[in-house]
Amino acid sequence: MFEGLLAALTPSLLLYLCIGVLAGILVGALPGFTATMGAALMLPFTFTLEPAEGFAMLAALYVATMFADSVPACLVNTPGTPSAVATALDGFAMTKQGRGQAALIASCFSALIGTFVGGITFLLLANPLTDVALTFGPPEFFWIGIFAITVIGSVAGNSLLKGIAGGALGMLIGAVGISSTGAVPRYTFGIPELLGGISIVAALIGIFAIPQVIDMVRNRHADPHVADFTKRKGTARETIWGLARRPVNVLRSSVLGTAIGILPGAGSPIASLVSYNEAKRWSKDKASFGRGNIDGVVASEAAGNAAAGGSIIPLVSLGIPGSAPAAVILGALLLQGLKPGPELFSSDATLVYTFAWSIILAGVVTFVAGMLLSGSLARMVLIPVRLLAPCILFLSVIGAYAIRNSMMDVYLMLGLGVAVYFLAQLGFHPGPIGLGVILAPIIEPALVESLSIAQSSSAVEVFFGRPLCIALIVLTIVSMVWVGVTRYKDARDARSAARMEPPEVPVPQADQTTSESVGSR
Amino acid sequence: MKYLAILAAGTVALGVAACGGGGSSPSADAELNCRSIDFIVPYAPGGGSDRQVRRMQPHLEEALGTKINVNYMEGGDGAIGWQALAGKKPDGCTVSNVVAPNIMLLTSSGQNVGFTAEDFEYLGWSETTPNVLAVAADSPYKTIDEFVAAAKANPGKLTVAGVGEVGELLTAETQNSTGTKISYVPVSGGVGAIVPDILGGHVDAGTIGAAHVAESEGRLRALAMTGTEKLESLPDVPTYEEAGYGPATLGTAWGVIAPSGTPEAIVKTWNEAIADAVAKEKQQIIEAGLIPLEQDVDEARDYVQKMTDALTAARETVEN
Predict the structure, then answer these.
(1) Does residue A132 belong to the interface with chain B, where contact is any CB pair within 8 Å?
(2) Which of A500, A520, B157, B177 sits between 20 and 30 A of B305, alpha carbons compared?
(3) Same-domain status, B117 and B137
(4) How much is the pTM?
(5) How many domains does chain B have?
(6) CA separation for the pair A143, A464 (Å, rounded)
């Protein structure tokens, strides 16, 4: 194990690691560019490298992207990749309160811890955990997806009903294109370009970035900047000290993220959403989630990063990638002539340990880079909206196009964005819509596969007869009940608070006084 | 204003970067006059098509004297990438990976996909693999006969996973060849999603390319193979016919295509470059569990017909 660490600490490997981190920060910070894309772009450069160096570079890019996607999420409410959707909820609220730098610091600190937990798990528990991961089949993934839907309860804003409707809309958007079994085109209206559906990344840019841009532009006179920010010495120290003193959240999120990352196909987006939900559930200050609670940022980012480390585990121990970027890394390893699997562990254990240490080191480098950049990045919010908004729009268009060189993705992104803007005016929060888009490609194939498997026994047995499924169903029911109870209590508390205090009255104009309309004690 | 300058610089830099790292190296070949080559891969990075292209990339760049940019255009089971190719100029500067019989399946499905399989110039096929019926190494079925016996004793109870329309056809072929009734489980997300299902025991078997079994180093066992050729990397696996069952012919092949109307001279240049790449990567291709193909231009064209015929034959046996 320690030869692996020594091998990882060679200057050339560290050099490639740092290059990977820098590339990852760039990729993550630009909305529309995903870790998968970045890894694919970097792939040819790894051919001339040693396997360990090539892996280090790609893993570093993956880890750094998972951190950097929180930058646009926190600063301009636009997730840099789908894994940052939950981060934007509290991160942007923090920025509006002038705490943007603290949000970014929390994010890179969570990246450090999350990656560390993921990497250590890889080092110590790779093989037994992979066996556990294999017991998750299509029915289990179906129920995980349903459980993830209950996250809507946390991100829906004021109206749960509108949240559910938004989630359903998101899933419908995800259904466009050829069905998961490859046979039937849906909602393509005969247009061949729609056969590929709407790319998730383009959809998320549309759902989050475009309404934000429209909002910024409409309010540009009232709010010439996104938020205020003054750099204060000691922000970094305070933030980290504050987080280090309450380790439960970050550790729980990291463990959860690693666990979800190990399941092939789940990945960072699911990990960060579920972790955010759990952080809110166990928090003593639930109401502040979505309004700038730093724990929300920590939960989402720690899990997202831990999932990156977690998804490498089945990659190396089974040759099955746990996520899309891991699939690219698998391709890189195969092209180098390596065959991931138990044989690799026995024939070249040092190399495998070097992989694990590379992940941990990537977390450290990302943390340092994040700390150094947090101040300057946070100052981005001081750029006047009339310059920032067009920039974001420009990057969104390029990002949507870059996914597969398709103008159709750009048009869909813009159309979706305008539609979601109007929906937001009607009280539909974009969060659940984004959630639906992310979950549709997980839930539907799992459902179809499970039903097909049920041909050999019965649907009841497949969906309700497996122990893991039952556990997940119980979790889902508990989650739903919890959502219902909390909302009922919040509504009841809000009503009694309204009875006890006068509501805030607007500044009286002329001879208008409104206080007599309030029943005061 | 400071911010304006920074923003402007940043945006310009991004714009330049986004225009792609277009190679400025002059083309050494008189016939191929491209600033850079746009190589479309209509599937996700990390998959079989990606690996085919990446394996050939350095050799193609050398032979053609031009830099290659790989462009992933995933979606619609290949439709998005091939649609895009159909609209490009036939100057040999934009090509795409092609997978058979997938492209033929798409165009014969009756829906408008924006192109037909005949709309392209086939520059060459690089590798092929038969499809196998694979089970987990710890499965109770050690030979194809045991599997068939179990399937016959429990019609409809054994589950076999496959990918997309090809998977459905492959499983149907298997049933036809062995005279059994099996439940088909469609899996999305490529073979990467099938393997955990097999290993975890969620399905009894899967119909996948032989290459994936060869790669799996003993975690998967192939019971029988389609086609008539033996595979070096899986010497103990019989073909369906060898094992005494009816014929099963569907294999998978990877190649390169260009828009129709590409001049013959350019087609020939590409064909030679591909053959060169395959020759240089022969050992790696074989170790990956694939069969390398070396064909001239006419052979490449004939191969298209061969795959189309195999597809038709498979469909007919299945429907009868």
Answers:
(1) no
(2) B177
(3) no
(4) 0.82
(5) 2
(6) 10
